[in-house]
Design a protein that fits this description.
Blueprint (H helix, E strand, L loop, with lengths): L6 H4 L17 E2 L11 H8 L14 H11 L6 E4 L1 H13 L5 E5 L5 H9 L2 E5 L8 H7 L4 E7 L11 H10 L5 E5 L17 H6 L3 E6 L12 E4 L2 H10 L7 H12 L1 H24 L3 E2 L6 E5 L3 H13 L2 E2 L1 E2 L8 E5 L3 H22 L1
Parallel strand pairs: 1-11, 3-4, 3-5, 5-6, 6-7
Antiparallel strand pairs: 2-8, 7-8, 9-10, 10-13, 12-13
Bound molecules: pyridoxal-5'-phosphate (PLP).
């Protein structure tokens, strides 16, 4: 007799991003939207200071980390819950709020962890179609049903890099029943300048509505992907539910200590943003000039559109041979695209040159 897991898990398409290093040689990893400048020097100092206390369990919720986040982003510390990456919070929200057969709305080109967590919880993902690679608030509103319990919107969205304006987020909040939780996943919000008044990370709505939550991560701008650290901002009852079902020690001591140091390092933050603002238009221009289409973005990554899926596949292999890892978009339903994140200056120069060579190699083959 075969022992089978529950039926919602049997139909799961498991999301497992490939983070295997290339077999040998140069490694320019632009495939997982990591911070371009690595970790902040303050984060490196903080991790080196750890050691003698390795045998101690960490604080369940690090007060210093929560205080550092609250201070940096002017938030209420009581509403903050750190997590083992924001992936953990996506899973916990689904586990806590979806009964078997309940619906959760996701967007057409949304982050693949959303449908995975919904299915694991026994829920049903309902897809709201995008409007030209941008989340459509109308489509989300039209997808609402009496069974809807959760709505997941990443803003800016991964993998498209597009943003939904604040006025649209307000329209969504106004249209959604108060017992449906709206999850605003703002993993890339740090890349949008604070003075851009058309954007909201959602924190202000968390404070005003009982059904809006915001998720953030240390894996992108803060460059701490290896430590697995995220956090959420919640209405108090939701925060308490998630805190009660979270693994008691899900955030390890290194993540908490280094995260607090990283979020306090304003200089590194400003340098990272300046780097993104400088190199995004430069690398996109180089790619466009080489004859490919770099799509507009508000994050630290963007889609590159090729003539067809075959050309995208060829480009992926061509870059990998030069040690440059880009992300295939077949699992996201965009087979003619690759996704690329920004790296450091040297990596961007090598990549720009490689796109030129790719163009030459493709035209040689087609002529
Ligand atoms: C939209 C979005 N949300 C969440 C995450 C996960 O972040 P973490 O590393 O904190 O789990 C990612 C990472 O790629 C992402 O793109």
């Amino acid at each position: 007799m075969t022992i089978t897991p529950k039926s919602s898990i049997q139909s799961l398409v498991s999301y497992r991003p490939d983070v295997t290093p290339l077999p040998e040689g140069r490694q320019i990893r632009l495939s997982v939207n990591e911070g371009a400048l690595g970790p902040s020097p303050k984060a490196l100092e903080a991790i080196q200071s750890m050691g003698a206390e390795l045998h101690r369990y960490p604080e369940q919720i690090s007060r210093d980390l929560v205080a550092a986040i609250a201070e940096r982003f002017s938030l209420d510390p009581n509403r903050i819950l750190p997590s083992n990456g924001s992936d953990e919070l996506i899973g916990l929200l689904s586990t806590a709020y979806l009964e078997d057969g309940d619906e959760a709305i996701i967007t057409q080109y949304g982050f693949l962890v959303f449908p995975q967590s919904i299915r694991i919880a026994g829920g049903v993902p309902v897809v709201a179609m995008d409007d030209d690679l941008t989340v459509s608030i109308d489509a989300i509103i039209n997808a609402l049903s009496p069974k809807t319990k959760l709505i997941f919107v990443a803003n800016p969205n991964n993998p498209t890099g597009t943003m939904v304006e604040k006025s649209e987020i307000e329209r969504l909040i106004a249209a959604v029943p108060k017992d449906v939780i709206i999850v605003l996943d703002s993993a890339y919000s740090e890349y949008i300048p604070t003075e851009d008044s058309a954007y909201t990370d959602g924190a202000e709505y968390v404070e005003r509505h009982d059904n809006v939550v915001m998720l953030r991560t240390f894996s992108k701008m803060f460059g701490l992907g290896s430590l697995r650290l995220g956090w959420g901002y919640f209405p108090l009852p939701i925060r308490d539910v998630l805190a009660s079902i979270r693994g008691p020690f899900s955030v390890n001591a290194a993540a908490a200590t280094v995260g607090a140091a990283a979020v306090r390092d304003r200089d590194f933050f400003d340098r990272s943003l300046a780097h993104n603002n400088l190199w995004l238009p430069r690398i996109q221009d180089s790619i466009n000039q080489a004859g490919f289409q770099a799509l507009p973005t508000r994050a630290n990554f963007f889609l590159i559109r090729f003539a067809d899926p075959e050309e995208a596949q060829t480009a992926h292999g061509f870059m990998a041979e030069r040690g440059i890892q880009l992300r295939k978009m077949v699992p996201y339903g965009l087979p003619d695209c690759l996704r690329m994140s920004l790296g450091n200056e040297e990596e961007m120069e090598i990549t720009a040159a490689a796109f030129k060579d790719l163009a030459t190699s493709l035209s040689r083959k087609s002529s």
